[in-house]
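Pasting two entries for a bug report.
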Amino acid sequence: MDYKNINTYNYDLDESLIAQMPIKKRDHSNLLVVNKNNGKLIDDKFYNIINYLNSNDILVFNNTKVIPSRIYGYKSDTNAKIEVLLLKELDKDIWECLVRPQKRVHISTVINFSEEFNMEVLEVLNEGIVHAKFNYKGIFMEHLDKLGAMPLPPYIHKKLEDKNRYNTVYAKIYGSSAAPTAGLHFTNELIDKIKEKGIKILYITLNVGLGTFRPVSEENITNHIMHKEYYEINKQVAA
């Protein structure tokens, strides 16, 4: 088997098996457990994950918080509709963004999202990426909360009614363009039970960025260039 060839990882997936809405209770999602000793597979529920953890274990959670980073606006000169996905803040009010369609966007292009919120393109890079300055009245995140949508994966077609469901219950530090999905299934109650068992929980910050959206286009996956992501680990966690 050629593990470097992208075609090795192809498989058929029935789209009807992809849940379009989150389960009512986060920790009632399915959990697949692999016995590392004999390879046996166990179908379980996520709330039983505590049964597979030992009292001397350490869990490391990513406390990044997803921003409603997908916004739609209109060019000030032609009124053409533009989709913008905020990727990361480079400086005060200056962001790296993914725009579609890129061919309509040039340096100095102004995209209006509302009467009090717009962006001006400062630099046009490759693959739909631009650097832009946001101009607004009031508080930046309040405009995003009002106008932005959560950047759901392309295989999710239904609108997310509750933005909080695309964040973990321990999300704290704004900066991600997508959720660290493995942590979405934890509830505060489950975390309390884990702590009561003597399991230590530590937090790091890794802002999920463009790399999670970009498909691997290289046939040899070792040639795929990953997008950089910001991370932060404090001294206590590193020790």
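Entry 2 (this is the one that rendered wrong in the viewer):
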Amino acid sequence: MGAVALAAISCNNQPQGETTELAVPVSVENVRKQSISQFINTTGTAKAIYETTLNSEVSGQYHLLANPSTGKPFKLGDKVKEGQIIVRFEDPEYINALAIESKKLNLEISENEYEKQKSLYEKGGVTLRELRNSEVSRTNAQYDYESAQIRLAKMNVVAPFSGVIVDLPYYTKGTRVNSGQQMVSLMSYDKMYVEINLPEKSISEVQLGQEAIVTNYTIEQDTLIGLVSALSPMISSETRTFSGKLLINNPELKLRPGMFVKADIITAKKDSVLVIPKNIILTGNRGKYVFVVERNNAADDRMIQTGIENKDFVEVTEGLKENERLIIKGFETLRDNSKVKIIL
């Protein structure tokens, strides 16, 4: 009986009606100052800044030239420099008809005659009319020679800008091609652009010169930097959007023409401000709040004011201090003054 009585007394040491509050396990991190950017997300298709298709301007026998960098005939994907000859045509009859050497000689004779007449005119040896006639002859000879040179240059297909060969129809060497046939297509895409459409509500946020972070699923490890280069002032009445362009630096040619890209336009950025994860913010009757751990290991529901934000993080302008212990896991069931146990 004595043992039973002692056991009963021991069990009743805790006053009736009181329960021990279990500490809720939570994870914390210190509130820190860092940089945060606010974005507007958009998508589009990357396009080359320069592109062209070159056709033959004369008829002649087709000859694909060698790439000086490889010593082999030009092929798809080869880089070319501005002014480089890619294809050359041969047509002796066409070249003879141009009479380049004859016109060059005629120009030299006309220039000498003009200088002679000019000297005589200064000495009173010829009239002004005779000098003018000599000048006209020189001008006509110069025009004939330059015109022949232009027509001769059409025997070459020349890259108008530095770029990459993206299409090169096959012709057998020596095949006679006619004027107007496609020879080669070039693109320059070390700089690219993306046409974008943005929601009407963003028109006051997006400005020329703002940076954009550009990504594509095939190059997820790398991000490219773009700039807002053009914005339309007009809102589409059908889509309630306005159009714009992003100019993208693509020095390593990782982004290809036609690729689908995602762009995050940076509309605001702040440095050295308090930043917390967005998903830990709760909302109640009094507004937004988070939980912090006080010195007595009790949770304190802290009302906060927020500033700029993105999909993952938000700036806190009021309510928190640097290095306070912010609860980032286990906060869902907490109440003000709940006991907590910090775990890793």
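Dev reply: Rendering is fixed now. As a check, the viewer should reflect this: The chain is about 20% helix and 40% strand.
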